[in-house]
Amino acid sequence: MHNLIARLNWLDAPGAAWLSGEANFRKQGASRKMSANIAELEKRRAAARLGGGQRRIDAQHAKGKLTARERLDILLDEGSFEELDMYVEHNCVDFGMPETIIPGDGVVTGSGTINGRLVFVFSQDFTVFGGALSERHAQKICKIMDMALKVGAPIIGLNDSGGARIQEGVASLGGYAEVFQRNVLASGVVPQLSLIMGPCAGGAVYSPAMTDFIFMVKDSSYMFVTGPEVVKTVTNEVVTQEELGGAITHTTKTSVADLALENDIEALLTAREFLDFLPLSNRHDIPERPSADAWDRLEPSLDTLIPASANQSYDMHEVLGKVLDEGDFFEIQPKHAGNILCGFGRIEGRTVGVVANQPMVLAGVLDINSAKKAARFVRFCDAFNVPILTFVDVPGFLPGTAQEHNGIIKHGAKLLFAYAEATVPKITVITRKAYGGAYDVMASKHLRGDLNYAWPTAEIAVMGAKGAVEIIFRGLSGEAQAEKVREYEGRFANPFVAASKGFIDEVIVPHSTRRRIALGLRKLRGKVLENPWKKHDNIPL
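Predicted structure:
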């Protein structure tokens, strides 16, 4: 038996050697194939990274603009970008399009981090078909938007596009609508930021318009539904791109955009700073970062900030700078409706949303533009569980036929509605005037304000003393009326009547404002408040 086994082993030895050689041959073949595949991969990656070619890249640089990928390099943490759909190609068969196929199809999509926090991004590539949106281009954007919704992370869009790809006809229009639908579904779920870094015209404007914030670049970005040529043809108006829909126009007149930045780099770095204030989604807590600014820091200069005369102004920025951590206030729409300030800051390292009347502009009065600006900001904060601080110095609503005929009633109601529906912690500080309906609107106790404070200089009344006396004591002489004005001021030009009714929780010394707010926010971190069930509300749009 042993001899037989030895004999069989001897007979099988050549076969074993042959099998071993075959395995080595296959292994070498697989290695060569893998090398070829890797070479092909690198070739395709290089083609995708080149976009529309060096000539178009040079043209983009000549305009002072970065390419789609260069922008992502600045926006995201180094080495964090993971691209998806690099090899996607368009599926258009008309107008000679099959002869011009560029991998990526004019948009770079994927995810990365900003200061270590996850974001999803798309960056349109103007060097490829002018960044025009095709069906596949739209599908790439929709894919990363869907992923952002699933995992709960912000969506940042870098827009630089000539609009719909005409060769694809209605397919490209359908692509836009798919993006629009996701903008709506993502609203209030994850923060959406649009950076307009080139042209954005026609239907393309409606996607950024539905995002939470829009940053534009001066002299190189434009947004309009119809361009200057169409305007001239239809209305005979002669207007430039900049005048019609440039960054200055949209951050001063229309309020479509929030900030106008000097160039691509400033816009991208500002976006990085801005994202630090925002939670990742409505499921995440607000961000927190270490702060060396003592929570109980006192500011004696606030005790003398309010002028002796009610007709004199002061800068509300000074109040915010002395209350917020390190005086850091990221203002939204600083060039539009300057009579109200909106933006983000931090208390004890945690993000807060700030709304404040600005006495330096129109005496801080509420008008159509300021009401719309603040209402949208308040609703954003409420959607993402960001506590709201409100600083009040408001003489009322702006009178006049222009305001009334343009709908101050409905527009003013937007701010009232926004504050009333908000369930996040709300702390209000009345620094000086709070007159009439504007007192109610500005996060009053009656709109479920959690902590409502007033400085000793606060004046809470239906209207100013002079106007009140002229109505109540219409028949009195000038001297008698002056006496009644002094009497009315003594009775109502203070916070104590409101405090006696419980409408003001405490009259505080100005220098302790930061300490009071910090303590208040600590108390309110566990706040639970729900509105009655509804499919959705019907804000007066």
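Summary: The chain has 19 helices and 17 strands.
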